[in-house]
Amino acid sequence: MLPKWTCAILSLLVFSSALRDFEVESFIEMTELAYEDACLEAAKAEWSFVNDMDDRSRDNWTTAQLNYGLFKKNQTQEILENSIKNVTNESLKYKHELAEKPGDALLNDEDWKSLVLFIGEAEFLRRTARYTEEGKEFTRDDVERLLFHGGTVKEKRAAWSSWHSQLAPITTNFSRSLTLVREAAKVNGMSDERSYWELLSGYPNGYKNAEEQWRQLLSLHGKIVGFVRSRLSEKYGLPLENNTVPAYLLGSLQGFDWTNIMNLMPQSNLTYEIRKNLWKKELIGRTLYKSVSSIGSAVLNQVPEAEFWENSQFNGTCPSELISFCRDGEMRVSTCSEASISNYLDAHKNVAKILVNQMMADHASMLSTANRYSALEEAMAQLFAILSVSPAQLQSLGLIRSTNGTEELQMLSLMITALDVLPSVAYYLSADLWRINALENETISSDDLIDSWWRHRSEYEGVASDSLDPPTFLDDSYIISNKPYLPKLVGTILAFQLYEYIMESTEVRYSHVEANRPNHALVKMIQYGGVENWMDLIQKHLELDEISVESLLSFLLPLEEYIERANDELEDLPKIITADQEREFQRLEQIYREQALAPKTTTISTTPTTTTTTAKAVPSSETQTKPPLDLKSDSKTVTNEQADKPSNVEAANSTTTNENSYENLSKSFDMDDESEEEPKMNTSKAVWAVAAVLVATVTICVIAIFGRRRCRKTPKNRRYV
């Protein structure tokens, strides 16, 4: 039996340790509150910069970023001055490291200013670049549309090369900016660039593991590249050599999202059906994001909160920008109203990130959000993208008919996922290793960087520049900002492990995810996603000990087998659609675009006492539309041209196209439906209701003023009562 004095000493030590943890927790909480305020100012400036890109907004963004970096450095100094030792709580240790090593913000003042100025210059140029050819000025949107839709090889090569050439003048500035990665590693206490980016990604030995996983993907990736190359060769009549494909034929400026060339795949009839129905059902912008909420509700029992819908910009430009506003998980998106498979997937990825941040709001550390990149968040984004193209989801939105064959639907789903995932994984690894190798080998001159960039893209992605060699890396916000792609790479692979975990299978899903039955372990893991390292979380909650491509390979195995058979039976594959068919679809798509984007026509009549607004009726899709477009791959013309024309083509081309608009989105996804009348309460109840609201408001204000810290720990659903 221990002596009494021994017990007293042990008790004192335990009490001292608990007291020390309490002091540290209080200090960290005050730091996080200060982070929120500083982050919010930077977020406001970024939102203005993205949506109103001019010299003034760029200057404001630059000032806000410089101040935010200076704030982080000052907070680090406070942490060091209040040296925290002998802390027993692992969560506090984790938060302490986040504040002590915040990343690039620890650069000396001149280097930090240099980095911020370059990022602002590059972002401004890549979004406002123009080039002129034959007297016509081309914007980024013009070039993206040309690369995505029909056009000759010559036109696409010229537009792609000329647009990227507008960024060439800042290549030298990028060379200097890239060297700051090495300086940032030093001031954060890391030995080199690899370990520094692994620190920011929360993934020790991440690049070694990523390269090991990549070697297992090489065979499948090579088969996809070869299949795409054969389809491009058939489409454009080019002798594609050296086992690469031209970047300018991949449907976009950046070239690592290959879903824009789905129209060249054997499932092109279904691809056109999806694209057509995205327009017909007006699944663009806000309406598209509302439809995505069905997956969020089923998987996580969450939908985006009201602030998201009120503050986001759905009629902006693409690619979309998702910005965190630092408090209570609030995020906003700035996106465009354009129908494509790429934008459809992008919307699902963005909504996943929005829901993850909402769910983490009550527990997550602001330090984690501000100073680290989350592979878990990226995994959830990719998981939503995988689910979005399942036959069940596509049919539920009316994007494809349920009468299509099971195998054809399976290949459609797998092909979209493969063209979204495999080129991206290859690009992420290529972009990071290219920068790391350039720094390690001291090959950072402009010419060296451009040359090594295309060598890496050829080796990892199977993408070539056709001897044009423009600096396409300057059109990448991650690269110009010195951010690592490692979290995105790892998150993409992890997504398939999450899919297997929640579906208990890696097969394509033909039935809906059961609504309101989310996986509790997954939900709990996300809720605490900012408190611990993401690798510890997946091990603790999901018992996943490592990141592995086995689930990804298993998921895409049927597609791999399909490609192997297809290569042996090329003559049996559906032929590439003709240029005439493509032009005809573009014409029909333009009609749908005009109808979807046309302002809604209303008639307003007023009387001395009332004002009445009457909207024109929208015809039922059952009576106004014909059977879907059927592009026969072995014909030279569109056999069902009349099937997709509006009942009144002249009206469709006039300024009153809204009168012939097609199907509206199902009411089950219309979260802002205001057509239903609210029940009316009698006068006495209304008075009591108003009084109750006033009393509750005063009470909440008092609590907020005198108990801010306590209020912040209250669950969100109670805070906003």
Count of individual helical segments: 30
Query: Approximately what portion of the residues adopt beta-strand conformation?
Result: under 5%
N-to-C span: 54 Å
Q: Please give the order of strands in the largest beta sheet.
A: 1-2
Helix coverage percent of residues? 55-70%
Apparent shape: globular
* Helix vs. strand class: mainly alpha
- Topology, number of strands: 8
Largest sheet: 2 strands, antiparallel
- What number is the mean pLDDT? 80
Low-confidence stretches: 7-16, 602-690, 702-721
Gyration radius (Cα, Å) is 27 Å
Compact description:
This protein is mainly alpha-helical. It is built from 30 helices and 8 strands. It has a two-stranded antiparallel ribbon. The chain has a two-stranded parallel ribbon with strand order 3-6.
Written description of the protein model:
This protein is mostly helical and about 725 residues long. The protein contains 30 helices and eight strands. Helix content is about 60%, strand content about 5%. The strands form four sheets. Strands 1-2 form a two-stranded antiparallel sheet. A two-stranded parallel ribbon has the order 3-6. A two-stranded antiparallel ribbon has the order 4-5. α2 (about 55-80) runs antiparallel to α4 and α10 runs parallel beside α24. The model is unreliable at about 5-15, about 600-690 and about 700-720 (pLDDT under 50).
Keywords:
mainly alpha; two-stranded antiparallel ribbon; 60% helix
